[in-house]
Design goal:
Blueprint (H helix, E strand, L loop, with lengths): L2 H7 L4 H17 L3 H9 L4 H16 L1 H9 L8 H16 L4 H14 L6 H20 L3 H4 L3 H11 L1 H10 L6 E5 L5 H5 L4 E3 L5 E3 L16 E3 L6 H10 L6 E5 L5 H8 L3 E6 L2 H14 L4 E4 L11 E7 L14 H4 L8 H15 E11 L8 H8 L4 E4 L19 E3 L13 E8 L1
Parallel strand pairs: 5-6, 5-8, 6-7, 8-9
Antiparallel strand pairs: 1-3, 1-4, 2-3, 9-12, 10-12, 11-12
The protein binds S-adenosylmethionine.
Length: 438
């Protein structure tokens, strides 16, 4: 049962809204990512409240521009941050979730007392009551797509893809991302579709309708699958197709943790070395390898200055990036990051790509991937590094991947946007290029 329909039956306590308030404020005021902080908060909440908090915070962030525009009709002077954020959460519940209006108003009034703003209870009550009666009409007049997208992201998409595509990308972000799974035994995909209530995507991922705890889904304990967006599964598939017979081929997975792509490569029989600089994330990679029952060498190192003893048949470089392709899953991204902050990524990506060429045997193949929508982190990086003369770019064949031919850009890379497959539930944004060492 979804948290929103759950909320019709029983109102989640003020404590869960207080947790939501802290997470929202952390993101919009202090630039702190919600996910990492949520892990800490989650332990203090009941499982059903956990789902509610996650949904409430994500919805408020997804719709923040619209929510603020509605509030602008009823609040003449911006209130203090805890009051403003309480109002935002209240509006999200009234206009975008199934929370009963009286419950949304009453719990917001209680919440504002909790944050020691008791004298603002009258304002919160009055404003939210107006939102209950007039909010839906105000929403109907809004430019939803523009308002729900932070300005710096919108401008970047219009510049890179044009106004129409920017709108389609923004529309994709209003919808929560589906749950996609990758199979250890890809040949068994049809057998798992029914128990998981999933559809088989042409790219070889399962897209689930199932809800509830992931750990309780069929096949989790047996290590039959792992969670991985269908687009995130494509870089390793591109590499495996190019390797033809991947069994025993030596592959280094750079920036590997928590290991979604390592698992794909290892399940296909590659001799994988997974490199990452984060101890914590490598622990998760180890846990994932154990659960799925496959092996990989693990190296804790900074890939920019790691020199392996032997050269590899292939490299998969899933470079650190702005992650702007994952906004459906991380609606806080547009608020915790800024254009200025993401400016440094391309230089680092070029360093990593150049370093990767030293790890490859002559003729070896490399897949460069970023979950970013920024051309500066994708095609521009590849173009710049190719000029060194160490790589040539190969055209990716979409057919064996089950991908759409329109996803291939002029140079032969996959340029996936969140608006693709909108009728099926969308995809994360990814740029994936296939290179050969010359
Ligand atoms: C996009 S995530 C990788 C996701 C992973 N490939 C997967 O499929 O599950 C980026 C990873 O890069 C790692 N990382 C960032 N800079 C690095 C560097 N210079 N050397 C090694 N790892 C790095 C981070 O610790 C993080 O785990």
């Amino acid at each position: 049962m979804s948290a929103s329909s759950d909320s019709k039956k029983k109102t989640e306590p003020v404590s869960s809204r207080a947790a939501a308030l802290a997470l929202l404020a952390g993101a919009v005021r202090d630039g702190k990512a919600v996910d990492t902080r949520f892990q800490k908060v989650a332990g203090t909440l009941e499982p059903r409240d956990r789902a509610f908090v996650r949904l409430l915070v994500a919805t408020t962030l997804r719709r923040l521009g619209q929510i603020d525009a509605v509030l602008g009709h009823f609040v003449t002077r911006t209130p203090l941050p805890p009051v403003e954020d309480t109002l935002r959460l209240g509006v999200a519940q009234i206009l975008f979730l199934d929370t009963a209006p009286h419950a949304a108003v009453d719990t917001s009034v209680e919440l504002v007392k909790r944050v020691r703003q008791s004298k603002m209870t009258g304002l919160v009550n009055a404003v939210l009551r107006k939102v209950v009666s007039q909010g839906k009409d105000l929403l109907a007049e809004q430019d939803t797509l523009r308002l729900s997208t932070p300005g710096w992201l919108w401008d970047g998409w219009v510049k890179a893809y044009g106004n129409k595509t920017a709108q389609q990308i923004a529309a994709a972000h209003l919808v929560e991302a589906p749950l996609d799974l990758s199979l250890k035994d890809v040949a068994a995909i049809d057998t798992w579709a029914a128990p998981l209530k999933a559809t088989v995507l042409s790219t070889g991922s399962l897209r689930c309708q199932a809800s509830g705890l992931i750990q309780e889904l069929p096949g989790f304990k047996d290590g039959a699958w792992w969670v991985q967006d269908a687009a995130a599964a494509l870089p390793a598939k591109v590499l495996l197709n190019e390797l033809d017979n991947p069994k025993g081929k030596s592959v280094v997975d750079l920036c590997a943790a928590p290991g979604g792509k390592t698992l794909q490569l290892a399940s296909a029989g590659c001799a994988v070395t997974a490199v990452d600089r984060s101890d914590m994330r490598l622990d998760r990679l180890r846990e994932n390898l154990t659960r799925i029952g496959v092996q990989a060498g693990i190296v804790k190192a900074d890939a920019t200055d790691w020199t392996p003893k032997q050269k590899f048949d292939a490299v998969l470089l899933d470079a650190p990036c702005s992650a702007t392709g994952t906004l459906r899953r991380h609606p806080d991204l547009g608020y915790v990051k800024t254009r200025k902050e993401i400016r440094g990524y391309p230089d680092n990506q070029k360093v990593l790509l150049r370093k990767s060429s030293e790890m490859l045997m002559p003729g070896g193949v490399l897949v460069y991937a970023v979950c970013s929508l920024e051309p500066g982190e994708g095609a521009d990086v590849v173009e710049a590094v190719i000029k060194d003369g160490n790589f040539s770019q190969l055209k990716i064949d979409p057919k064996p991947l089950g991908a759409n031919a329109k996803w291939i850009d002029e140079a032969g890379a996959l340029r996936i946007l969140p608006s693709f497959w909108s009728d099926k539930g969308g995809l994360d944004g990814f740029y994936i290029a296939l290179l050969r060492k010359t």
